[in-house]
Design goal:
Length: 159
């Protein structure tokens, strides 16, 4: 009997490790870090704008949306109502937090103001400016952290 013959198998050649240039690795890492930093800066700027925070000199930094109002007008014998949406503007972050915390009280005061307003009182630009002034006075009387600097009408409908 013949002994089992020994077979020879080809031995694969060892895989040569490629040397990676250290300069290329450092450059690639630097580029990735720059891209991430740029993305974070751009994303942060977009997020601030979407949240109503503007970072330019004369403009208000914070705009706080207040839930929509829909109330009956003070006109007797008429079934008219006023619907509006407003934003309160400020540069004070602490005031923004107070507005958000005290929004139900602020809404109550604005609703009382609107319910005592006749449609004729709101006609023209002067009527809107008077309403704006009254609402700002009511808001600033309620808030203790600072003063609301401006009010913007986003929607205003009288039916």
């Amino acid at each position: 009997m013949e002994s089992d013959s020994i077979r020879e198998y080809p031995v694969p050649e060892p895989v040569k490790k490629k040397k990676v240039n250290k300069f290329l690795v450092i450059a690639a890492v630097a580029v990735v870090l720059l891209l991430i930093t740029g993305w974070l800066q751009l994303g942060n700027g977009l997020l601030n704008r979407l949240q109503g925070r503007l970072n330019t000199g004369d403009e208000l930094r914070y705009l706080v949306p207040i839930k929509e109002f829909q109330v009956n007008s003070a006109d007797i014998g008429s079934r008219r109502f006023i619907r509006m949406k407003i934003y309160l503007g400020s540069n004070d972050k602490a005031l923004v937090k107070e507005i958000e915390r005290r929004e139900p009280e602020l809404r109550s005061r604005v609703i009382a103001t609107l319910r005592s307003t006749k449609v004729a009182d709101l006609e023209g630009e002067e009527g809107m400016e008077r309403l704006k002034k009254v609402i700002l006075e009511e808001a600033n009387a309620l808030l203790s952290t600072g003063d609301v600097e401006d009010l913007f009408f986003d929607e205003f409908i009288i039916q």
